[in-house]
């Protein structure tokens, strides 16, 4: 287990270094002078020189990169010109709504997707299986911004069950303002949960140890819940972790539709205001989150399934 853990951490460090390089190159790949772009076409040469000095753009390229790595390790990612505050502080202030949205959406996707996958696997090939697969595929085919708008029109404006924009703290406020966005995110993730869990359940339900459990007189419910579901959920969790980048991209659209003051809409604002320090930091932050989630799911998979550790030894 320790060898497997060390290898996965080493790979993650290499990937994080690559993400840091790409994030650093954002400022240098942008056409034109980032300082002049931030200040506008009518900026004075003195003001442009001042911004270039603040961003470190007047230093040699290699020194800029080493300074960027050093500041990143220490958590100093520069200052946001748009918000007149530290980039790190700006991101942390917007983190709570995004984290709540992702957690809420994943919970709804699991609560809906797991029973649907079990029903589809147990009665595979029947009309219920076909309906569940059709519904899950349809939910995946709907663009998140479109499904969010439709939910806002139906549950928000027509039925007036939930507000269609904004964010409130507290348990009641979160339920009121984050339910529609969470349902929208769950719609996008439903097909991932249903399709992968259904396939794994069908495979496990046809295995020898399940046949042995049936021969010993165990009920079908006990076999599915206590044996098949436990083993099948491992792959679904791993796939969700590997697709966390997709979750982030969907989350950006959902926050824009519902005007949630999270990290996603912060990225949109930073791009619109051409706040390149903030864009650079957000790109690095998103990449790091994806890497850490992938590392966590790999470790969790290895802890649950010894075959993963054994396979890692023979690679």
Q: What can you see in these coordinates?
A:
Strand 1 and strand 2 form a beta hairpin. This protein has 15 helices and 2 strands. Helix 9 crosses helix 11 (220-242) and helix 14 packs across helix 15. The two termini are 14 Å apart. The chain folds into 2 domains: 1-75 and 276-315, no CATH class; 95-261, MetI-like (MetI-like fold, Orthogonal Bundle). It has a two-stranded antiparallel sheet. It is globular. It has 315 residues and is mainly alpha-helical. It has helices at residues 2-29, 34-39, 45-55, 61-74, 87-93, 95-122, 127-141, 144-158, 171-205, 208-215, 220-242, 244-258, 263-272, 276-304, 306-313; strands spanning 79-80, 85-86.
How do you describe this structure in short?
With 315 residues, the chain is an all-alpha fold. It is built from 15 helices and 2 strands.
Determine the structural class based on helices, strands and strand pairing.
mainly alpha
User: Could you list the spans in which at least 5 consecutive residues all have pLDDT below 50?
Assistant: none
Q: Would you report the number of β strands? A: 2
CATH top level assignment of the largest domain: Mainly Alpha
Secondary-structure element string: HHHHEEHHHHHHHHHHH
Beta-strand percentage range: under 5%
Assign the CATH architecture of the largest domain.
Orthogonal Bundle
Q: Total domains, how many?
A: 2
CATH superfamily of the largest domain: MetI-like
- How do the strands line up in the largest sheet? 1-2
Morphology: globular
DSSP helix fraction: over 70%
Looking at CATH, which topology of the largest domain would you report?
A: MetI-like fold
Mean pLDDT: 82
- Biggest sheet descriptor: 2 strands, antiparallel
Radius of gyration: 24 Å
N-C termini distance: 14 Å
- Number of helical regions: 15
């Amino acid at each position: 287990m320790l060898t497997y853990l060390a290898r996965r951490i080493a790979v993650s460090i290499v990937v994080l270094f690559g993400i840091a390089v790409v994030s650093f190159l954002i400022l240098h790949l942008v056409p034109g002078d980032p300082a002049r772009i931030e200040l506008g076409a009518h900026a004075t040469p003195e003001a442009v020189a001042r911004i270039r000095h603040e961003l470190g753009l007047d230093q040699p390229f290699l020194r800029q990169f080493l300074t960027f790595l050093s500041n990143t390790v220490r958590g100093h990612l520069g200052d946001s010109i748009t918000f007149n505050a530290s980039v790190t502080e700006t991101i942390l202030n917007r983190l709570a709504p995004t984290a709540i949205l992702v957690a809420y959406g994943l919970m709804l996707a699991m609560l809906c997707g797991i029973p649907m996958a079990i029903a589809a696997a147990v009665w595979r090939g029947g009309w219920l299986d076909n309906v569940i697969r059709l519904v899950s595929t349809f939910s995946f085919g709907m663009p998140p911004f479109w499904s969010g708008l439709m939910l806002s029109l139906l549950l928000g404006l027509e039925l007036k069950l939930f507000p269609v924009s904004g964010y409130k703290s507290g348990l009641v406020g979160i339920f009121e303002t984050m339910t529609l966005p969470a349902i929208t995110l769950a719609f996008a993730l439903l097909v991932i949960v249903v399709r992968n869990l259904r396939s794994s359940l069908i495979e496990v339900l046809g295995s020898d140890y399940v046949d042995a459990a049936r021969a010993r007189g165990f009920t079908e419910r006990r076999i599915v819940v206590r044996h098949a579901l436990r083993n099948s959920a491992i792959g679904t969790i791993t796939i969700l972790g590997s697709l966390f980048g997709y979750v982030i991209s969907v989350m950006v659209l959902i926050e824009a539709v519902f005007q949630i003051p999270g990290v996603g809409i912060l990225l949109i604002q930073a791009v619109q205001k051409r706040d390149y320090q903030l864009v650079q930091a957000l790109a690095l932050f998103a990449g790091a989150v994806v890497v850490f989630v992938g590392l966590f799911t790999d470790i969790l998979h290895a802890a649950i399934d010894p075959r993963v550790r054994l396979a890692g030894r023979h690679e």
